[in-house]
Design a protein that fits this description.
This is Acyl-coenzyme A oxidase. Keywords: FAD, Fatty acid metabolism, Flavoprotein, Lipid metabolism, Oxidoreductase, Peroxisome, Transit peptide. Pfam families: ACOX, ACOX_C_alpha1, Acyl-CoA_dh_M. Its cofactor is FAD. This protein is of the alpha+beta class and 675 residues long. It has three domains: 112 residues, Butyryl-Coa Dehydrogenase, subunit A, domain 1 (Orthogonal Bundle); 151 residues, Butyryl-CoA Dehydrogenase, subunit A, domain 2, CATH 2.40.110.10; 331 residues, Butyryl-CoA Dehydrogenase, subunit A, domain 3, CATH 1.20.140.10. Helix content is 56%, strand content 9%. It is built from 23 helices and eleven strands. Strands 1, 2, 3, 5, 6 and 9 form a six-stranded mixed β-sheet that branches. Strands 4-8-7 form a three-stranded antiparallel β-sheet, with no helix packed on it. It is globular, with a radius of gyration of 28 Å. The N terminus and C terminus are likely disordered.
Length: 675
Amino acid sequence: MNPNQTVEDESHPYITSASRRIQLLSLHLTPLPPSQPSPQLNMLICAKAANKLEVDKVSLSTYMRGKNRDIQEKIIEFFESRPDLQTPVGVSMNEHRELCMRQLVALVREAKIKPFRYIVDDPAKYFAITEAIGSIDVSLGIKLGVQFSLWGGSVLNLGTEKHRDKYFDGIDNVDYPGCFAMTELHHGSNVQGLQTRATFDPVTDEFIIDTPNDGAIKWWIGNAAVHGKFATVFAKLILPTHDSKKVSDMGVHAFIVPIRDLNTLQTLPGIEIHDCGHKVGLNGVDNGALRFRSVRIPRDNLLNRFGDVSRDGKYTSSLPTINKRFAAMLGELVGGRVGLAYASVGFLKISVTIAVRYSLLRQQFGPPEQPEVSILDYQSQQHKLMPMLASLYAFHFATHYLVQKYSEMKKMHDEQLVADVHALSAGLKAYVTSYTAKSLSTCREACGGHGYAAVNRFGDNTVLMQQVAADLLKQYKDKFQGGSLSVTWNYLRESMNTYLSQLNPIIARWESADHLRDPKFQLDAFRYRTSRLLQSVAARLRKHSKTLGSFGAWNRCLNHLLLLAEAHTESVILAKFIEAVHNCPDASSRAALKLVCDLYALDHIWNDIGTYRNVDYVAPNKAKAIHKLTEYLCFQVRNIAGELVDGFDLPASVTRAPIAMQSEAYAQYTHHIGF
């Protein structure tokens, strides 16, 4: 297809608009003979005849895998060389739990790969390790994350030097398996509402950990049922006072609580552990529930980076309020969100690779007396999988950008950067995990009955999206009060000005392929949608706040706010994809990525074409051109789908099964391990 021509007619992509109209008129006077091929068949012939893009798979893979490729390959090679550490199909829950523990210990002590050392110093390498581990066994990936990112990360990020000196080596070599006990039966996302109490006893210089009621039981805690020896327990810090209240609630803090004897693994006095039992997936992770009955721990077990208690019971903190201390504490745990978004992309790579390879190999029907064709040659299969493949590439670059920003945050400790990463991680974690969960089902269905085989690898984000929307509204308010915008939202300044100004009717009618494939048009369209949603929801909130109050107004506009957060996240993803295409050094890989990026952008614009049509951002003829070009790009991506999934460079053992995905296990992963 000549990119300088319009894409109005799928059967004749080379003719101009004027020629098309003349030809249509002539067809009314001289109809096509019955024997002439249909326009749909002409399109297929034309697309097949188009030159297939040549892709250098080695260069593409090198660009995609990045600088941490070596350590990922080392991990894969280690587990492939150890049949005793490979997870068999149909393994029982108890066997799977013990196998996961052996796998983790072997990784650290035999393969000499110690992820904990990279948590702070090189987060990008840590996340690369988790991606490779997740491809071995999702349960192992979760267990590793609980041990090093959650339990170990809480000690590093919320504790001080005395805690690192005491616990680092034990966490690093897995002598101290631990848990992250935040979620309670009645409280998950609302961490400030946790009910577990840690009351200071000045007589014995100890904290007393108590579960006051059944709703405060720590629930679904990874590593708790079998292997955990310690738990980072999040509880309200209660101090005795001499006033009429007698106690003072200093807000939620984190405490190190031993739960099992280090040698015998027997449960310690006052600790009650309940095994959550068999799950629909992730049975290699020993989830459990914890209850505390007057469990005493030394005062030094308070992770005191943001607040401390002296021997005489006085509280000190560099942060003046409970809310500021709480925000600082959760800010240090944002790595969990980053890891969830990053790992989800890894799971989606496996799923899409299996589905695409199956669809390329599986043949079904075809023209009379001709060989059967690949099911990926059917438009319906292409429309299921090719936009998903394009989205996967987009997510890959967006989450790598998130890891880069997170790494900068850990080094610089800049307050604005912390806020930026907090909102960006919330948006990407929510968006990518939700998309992945839905896509796993689509991949399974795209593989027919094979998608349900047990041997295969197919395996609530609302609060996070509200955080993104809240941050956007704050940026919106700052913009009109003369404040500065944080890095991720800089585009809003120009985009809001565009939205508030008159639309250009000429640009709304441009329909050439060059224009539609122009990154500026694509990104402007994404950002225009975000700015439009932001302005409209801000107006609605102002209106409803007068009668419903701030909470009532927020609840009334909640679906609108979630759309805003989603639109913003998509804008960030596209911006990072465009940047990655531009930075790719290899010409053939860059051309392939550009094709995929265009499909990602135009597919999203077409899927929300009503929004753009309602405000005449896109004229009817342009909307039709977007649709036709999206279909064309879908077929072109299909032509290089094999090379694109090869670009992920996944080991053969990861995708050896014919198909299927543990989507139930993935749902467990995203909903029970995240923040």
